[in-house]
Design a protein that fits this description.
The strands form 2 sheets. This protein has an 8-stranded mixed β-sheet with strand order 6-5-4-3-2-1-14-15. The protein has a 7-stranded mixed β-sheet with strand order 7-8-9-10-11-12-13, with helices on one face. The chain is globular, with a radius of gyration of 19 Å. By secondary structure, it is α/β, with parallel strands linked by helices. The chain binds zinc ion (ZN) (2 copies). The site of one zinc ion has 4 residues, from loops.
Protein backbone atom coordinates (compact mmCIF):
# COMPACT_ATOMS: atom_id res chain seq x y z
CA UNK A 1 0.00 0.00 0.00
CA UNK A 2 1.52 3.32 -1.04
CA UNK A 3 0.15 6.64 0.14
CA UNK A 4 1.40 9.91 -1.29
CA UNK A 5 0.79 13.39 0.03
CA UNK A 6 2.01 16.62 -1.47
CA UNK A 7 1.26 20.30 -0.98
CA UNK A 8 1.30 21.81 -4.46
CA UNK A 9 0.91 25.41 -3.32
CA UNK A 10 0.40 27.18 -0.01
CA UNK A 11 -0.30 30.83 0.76
CA UNK A 12 -2.40 33.74 -0.39
CA UNK A 13 -1.32 33.20 -4.01
CA UNK A 14 -3.00 29.82 -4.07
CA UNK A 15 -3.52 26.63 -2.12
CA UNK A 16 -3.73 23.07 -3.33
CA UNK A 17 -2.51 19.61 -2.41
CA UNK A 18 -3.27 15.95 -2.92
CA UNK A 19 -3.68 12.78 -0.88
CA UNK A 20 -3.28 9.73 -3.09
CA UNK A 21 -4.06 6.17 -1.95
CA UNK A 22 -4.58 2.78 -3.65
CA UNK A 23 -8.33 3.55 -3.42
CA UNK A 24 -8.16 6.88 -5.20
CA UNK A 25 -7.01 10.39 -4.47
CA UNK A 26 -8.51 13.53 -2.99
CA UNK A 27 -7.60 16.95 -4.31
CA UNK A 28 -7.48 19.33 -1.35
CA UNK A 29 -8.19 22.93 -2.39
CA UNK A 30 -8.23 24.25 -5.93
CA UNK A 31 -6.60 27.66 -5.63
CA UNK A 32 -4.19 27.20 -8.55
CA UNK A 33 -4.71 27.01 -12.30
CA UNK A 34 -5.67 23.79 -14.07
CA UNK A 35 -2.45 23.93 -16.08
CA UNK A 36 -0.28 24.25 -12.97
CA UNK A 37 -2.23 21.54 -11.14
CA UNK A 38 -1.87 19.02 -13.95
CA UNK A 39 1.84 19.85 -14.34
CA UNK A 40 2.41 19.18 -10.63
CA UNK A 41 0.34 16.00 -10.71
CA UNK A 42 2.46 14.70 -13.60
CA UNK A 43 5.59 15.62 -11.71
CA UNK A 44 4.27 13.76 -8.63
CA UNK A 45 3.30 10.78 -10.83
CA UNK A 46 -0.37 10.81 -9.86
CA UNK A 47 -2.81 10.45 -12.75
CA UNK A 48 -5.84 12.70 -12.79
CA UNK A 49 -8.10 9.62 -13.22
CA UNK A 50 -7.25 8.68 -9.63
CA UNK A 51 -8.96 11.73 -8.14
CA UNK A 52 -12.36 10.98 -6.60
CA UNK A 53 -13.32 14.36 -5.18
CA UNK A 54 -12.22 17.93 -4.49
CA UNK A 55 -12.22 19.31 -0.95
CA UNK A 56 -12.61 23.06 -0.52
CA UNK A 57 -12.10 24.53 2.97
CA UNK A 58 -13.70 27.92 2.30
CA UNK A 59 -14.65 30.31 -0.45
CA UNK A 60 -11.64 32.65 -0.38
CA UNK A 61 -10.20 32.72 -3.87
CA UNK A 62 -6.76 31.46 -2.83
CA UNK A 63 -8.50 28.16 -2.05
CA UNK A 64 -10.97 27.86 -4.92
CA UNK A 65 -10.16 30.20 -7.78
CA UNK A 66 -9.16 27.34 -10.11
CA UNK A 67 -12.18 25.19 -9.28
CA UNK A 68 -14.53 25.96 -12.20
CA UNK A 69 -11.86 25.36 -14.83
CA UNK A 70 -10.27 22.38 -13.05
CA UNK A 71 -13.66 20.75 -12.69
CA UNK A 72 -14.54 21.37 -16.32
CA UNK A 73 -11.95 18.67 -16.94
CA UNK A 74 -12.29 16.48 -13.84
CA UNK A 75 -16.10 16.73 -13.40
CA UNK A 76 -15.94 15.41 -9.82
CA UNK A 77 -17.91 15.87 -6.62
CA UNK A 78 -16.85 18.86 -4.53
CA UNK A 79 -16.81 18.42 -0.77
CA UNK A 80 -17.31 21.46 1.43
CA UNK A 81 -19.41 22.91 4.22
CA UNK A 82 -22.89 24.24 3.49
CA UNK A 83 -21.61 27.79 4.03
CA UNK A 84 -18.94 27.34 1.37
CA UNK A 85 -21.44 25.73 -1.03
CA UNK A 86 -23.75 28.71 -0.53
CA UNK A 87 -20.88 31.09 -1.27
CA UNK A 88 -20.43 29.37 -4.64
CA UNK A 89 -24.11 30.13 -5.32
CA UNK A 90 -23.41 33.79 -4.62
CA UNK A 91 -20.58 33.76 -7.18
CA UNK A 92 -23.05 32.82 -9.93
CA UNK A 93 -24.24 36.29 -10.94
CA UNK A 94 -20.61 37.20 -11.57
CA UNK A 95 -19.44 33.95 -13.12
CA UNK A 96 -21.96 31.45 -14.49
CA UNK A 97 -19.52 28.54 -14.32
CA UNK A 98 -20.08 28.39 -10.55
CA UNK A 99 -23.69 27.29 -11.14
CA UNK A 100 -22.50 23.86 -12.21
CA UNK A 101 -20.11 23.65 -9.30
CA UNK A 102 -22.71 24.40 -6.64
CA UNK A 103 -24.91 21.54 -7.83
CA UNK A 104 -22.04 19.13 -7.53
CA UNK A 105 -21.20 19.94 -3.92
CA UNK A 106 -21.50 17.21 -1.29
CA UNK A 107 -22.01 19.05 1.95
CA UNK A 108 -19.99 17.78 4.89
CA UNK A 109 -21.52 18.64 8.23
CA UNK A 110 -19.31 19.68 11.13
CA UNK A 111 -21.04 17.16 13.41
CA UNK A 112 -21.10 14.13 11.12
CA UNK A 113 -18.13 12.96 9.07
CA UNK A 114 -18.74 12.22 5.40
CA UNK A 115 -18.10 8.64 4.27
CA UNK A 116 -16.69 9.20 0.82
CA UNK A 117 -15.45 6.03 -0.88
CA UNK A 118 -12.54 4.74 1.16
CA UNK A 119 -12.23 8.04 3.03
CA UNK A 120 -13.92 9.45 6.09
CA UNK A 121 -13.83 13.24 5.92
CA UNK A 122 -14.32 15.46 8.97
CA UNK A 123 -14.93 19.19 8.48
CA UNK A 124 -13.76 21.15 11.53
CA UNK A 125 -15.03 24.74 11.64
CA UNK A 126 -12.25 27.33 11.84
CA UNK A 127 -12.15 30.88 13.18
CA UNK A 128 -11.88 32.82 9.94
CA UNK A 129 -13.44 35.81 8.23
CA UNK A 130 -15.82 34.03 5.90
CA UNK A 131 -18.94 31.94 6.41
CA UNK A 132 -18.51 28.16 6.56
CA UNK A 133 -14.71 27.93 6.72
CA UNK A 134 -13.37 24.58 7.90
CA UNK A 135 -10.24 22.58 8.41
CA UNK A 136 -10.23 18.95 7.26
CA UNK A 137 -9.29 15.77 9.05
CA UNK A 138 -9.22 12.91 6.56
CA UNK A 139 -9.10 9.27 7.59
CA UNK A 140 -7.98 6.53 5.23
CA UNK A 141 -7.52 3.12 6.88
CA UNK A 142 -5.11 3.80 9.75
CA UNK A 143 -3.74 7.00 8.21
CA UNK A 144 -4.97 10.44 9.28
CA UNK A 145 -4.25 13.71 7.53
CA UNK A 146 -5.10 17.15 8.94
CA UNK A 147 -5.18 20.33 6.86
CA UNK A 148 -5.44 23.34 9.15
CA UNK A 149 -4.90 26.80 7.70
CA UNK A 150 -6.83 30.07 7.74
CA UNK A 151 -7.83 30.08 11.39
CA UNK A 152 -7.26 32.67 14.08
CA UNK A 153 -7.27 30.04 16.83
CA UNK A 154 -6.53 26.35 17.21
CA UNK A 155 -9.62 24.83 18.81
CA UNK A 156 -9.65 21.67 20.94
CA UNK A 157 -11.08 19.53 18.13
CA UNK A 158 -8.32 20.78 15.81
CA UNK A 159 -5.76 19.64 18.36
CA UNK A 160 -7.47 16.22 18.67
CA UNK A 161 -7.26 15.84 14.89
CA UNK A 162 -3.60 16.84 14.79
CA UNK A 163 -2.79 14.39 17.56
CA UNK A 164 -4.51 11.60 15.62
CA UNK A 165 -2.88 12.49 12.30
CA UNK A 166 0.04 10.90 10.53
CA UNK A 167 0.62 13.99 8.41
CA UNK A 168 -0.46 17.53 9.27
CA UNK A 169 -0.31 20.79 7.34
CA UNK A 170 -0.38 23.65 9.85
CA UNK A 171 -0.61 27.36 9.20
CA UNK A 172 2.22 29.70 10.19
CA UNK A 173 0.81 32.79 8.53
CA UNK A 174 2.67 35.73 9.95
CA UNK A 175 5.30 36.93 12.33
CA UNK A 176 3.43 39.24 14.65
CA UNK A 177 6.09 41.96 14.74
CA UNK A 178 6.47 41.87 10.97
CA UNK A 179 2.70 42.25 10.69
CA UNK A 180 2.66 45.28 12.97
CA UNK A 181 5.65 46.81 11.19
CA UNK A 182 3.95 46.37 7.80
CA UNK A 183 2.20 49.21 6.03
CA UNK A 184 -1.21 47.60 6.33
CA UNK A 185 -4.03 49.54 7.90
CA UNK A 186 -4.84 48.97 11.55
CA UNK A 187 -8.14 47.42 10.51
CA UNK A 188 -6.43 44.94 8.22
CA UNK A 189 -3.78 44.04 10.80
CA UNK A 190 -6.51 43.27 13.32
CA UNK A 191 -8.42 41.26 10.76
CA UNK A 192 -5.33 39.16 9.97
CA UNK A 193 -4.61 38.66 13.68
CA UNK A 194 -8.13 37.38 14.21
CA UNK A 195 -8.28 35.05 11.22
CA UNK A 196 -4.80 33.56 10.72
CA UNK A 197 -2.30 31.80 13.00
CA UNK A 198 0.93 33.60 13.73
CA UNK A 199 4.20 31.73 14.14
CA UNK A 200 4.11 31.82 17.95
CA UNK A 201 0.59 30.46 18.15
CA UNK A 202 1.52 27.50 15.98
CA UNK A 203 4.75 26.79 17.85
CA UNK A 204 2.77 26.99 21.09
CA UNK A 205 0.43 24.24 19.96
CA UNK A 206 3.32 21.92 19.07
CA UNK A 207 3.94 21.48 22.79
CA UNK A 208 0.43 20.03 23.01
CA UNK A 209 1.07 17.32 20.42
CA UNK A 210 2.02 14.11 22.16
CA UNK A 211 1.31 11.45 19.56
CA UNK A 212 3.99 10.19 17.22
CA UNK A 213 3.56 11.41 13.67
CA UNK A 214 5.36 11.10 10.39
CA UNK A 215 5.36 14.65 9.13
CA UNK A 216 4.47 18.20 10.04
CA UNK A 217 4.36 20.77 7.27
CA UNK A 218 4.16 24.48 7.96
CA UNK A 219 2.42 26.57 5.34
CA UNK A 220 0.22 29.49 4.30
CA UNK A 221 3.17 31.85 4.99
CA UNK A 222 2.41 35.51 4.35
CA UNK A 223 4.56 37.06 1.63
CA UNK A 224 4.88 40.43 3.33
CA UNK A 225 4.71 39.50 7.02
CA UNK A 226 6.59 36.22 7.24
CA UNK A 227 9.51 34.39 5.69
CA UNK A 228 10.87 30.85 5.81
CA UNK A 229 13.70 32.27 7.94
CA UNK A 230 11.32 33.61 10.56
CA UNK A 231 9.68 30.18 10.63
CA UNK A 232 13.06 28.43 10.88
CA UNK A 233 14.03 30.77 13.71
CA UNK A 234 10.92 29.81 15.67
CA UNK A 235 11.42 26.13 14.91
CA UNK A 236 15.04 26.25 16.14
CA UNK A 237 13.85 27.60 19.48
CA UNK A 238 11.22 24.87 19.70
CA UNK A 239 13.72 22.16 18.62
CA UNK A 240 16.27 23.33 21.18
CA UNK A 241 13.71 22.86 23.93
CA UNK A 242 13.09 19.31 22.70
CA UNK A 243 16.79 18.57 21.89
CA UNK A 244 15.72 17.53 18.38
CA UNK A 245 12.73 17.89 16.10
CA UNK A 246 10.51 15.03 17.21
CA UNK A 247 8.97 14.65 13.73
CA UNK A 248 9.91 15.24 10.11
CA UNK A 249 9.28 18.95 9.62
CA UNK A 250 9.02 20.82 6.34
CA UNK A 251 8.30 24.42 5.40
CA UNK A 252 6.00 24.94 2.40
CA UNK A 253 7.28 28.01 0.64
CA UNK A 254 5.00 30.36 -1.24
CA UNK A 255 6.80 30.09 -4.54
CA UNK A 256 7.48 26.35 -4.78
CA UNK A 257 5.60 23.09 -4.22
CA UNK A 258 6.27 21.13 -1.06
CA UNK A 259 7.99 17.74 -0.85
CA UNK A 260 6.32 14.55 -2.05
CA UNK A 261 5.77 12.41 1.05
CA UNK A 262 5.42 8.67 0.51
CA UNK A 263 4.29 6.06 3.02
CA UNK A 264 4.63 2.42 1.95
CA UNK A 265 3.49 -0.47 4.14
CA UNK A 266 5.38 -0.48 7.39
CA UNK A 267 8.22 1.62 6.03
CA UNK A 268 8.92 4.98 7.56
CA UNK A 269 8.08 8.05 5.57
CA UNK A 270 10.13 8.90 2.50
CA UNK A 271 10.31 12.52 1.42
CA UNK A 272 11.60 14.06 -1.80
CA UNK A 273 13.50 16.65 0.22
CA UNK A 274 15.39 16.46 3.48
CA UNK A 275 13.34 17.34 6.55
CA UNK A 276 14.55 20.26 8.64
CA UNK A 277 17.54 19.26 10.69
CA UNK A 278 18.08 20.95 14.03
CA UNK A 279 21.88 20.71 14.03
CA UNK A 280 22.05 22.20 10.51
CA UNK A 281 19.81 25.07 11.54
CA UNK A 282 21.82 25.63 14.73
CA UNK A 283 25.07 25.61 12.75
CA UNK A 284 23.59 28.24 10.43
CA UNK A 285 22.67 30.27 13.46
CA UNK A 286 26.16 30.02 14.96
CA UNK A 287 28.31 30.33 11.86
CA UNK A 288 26.68 32.88 9.62
CA UNK A 289 26.43 36.33 11.13
CA UNK A 290 24.54 37.50 8.06
CA UNK A 291 21.62 35.21 8.80
CA UNK A 292 20.01 38.11 10.56
CA UNK A 293 16.49 36.78 10.27
CA UNK A 294 17.53 33.55 11.85
CA UNK A 295 20.11 34.91 14.25
CA UNK A 296 18.85 38.00 15.80
CA UNK A 297 15.26 38.38 14.79
CA UNK A 298 13.67 36.37 17.54
CA UNK A 299 10.64 38.43 18.52
CA UNK A 300 9.33 37.94 21.99
ZN1 LIG B 1 -6.03 31.21 2.56
ZN1 LIG C 1 -9.01 32.44 3.87
Amino acid sequence: MTIKFRVFASGSNGNSGILSTPDGALLIEAGISRKRLFELMNETKISREKIRGILISHSHTDHCRGLPIINETLNLPIISSKGTRDSFLRFQPYDTRWKIESEKVQVVDSEIPLEFGAFRIHALPTVHDVVGSTAFYIEYKDIGVTILTDTGTILPNHLDAINKSTITLLEMNHDIQALYRSRRTTWLKRRIRASHLDNHQTIGILHEIHEQKEALLFGHLSGECNSPNYVRGELVKWGEEMDEFPWNCFICQRDAPGPTLTLSGNDTLKASEEPLNLSTLKALKENDPNQTDLLSYFPE
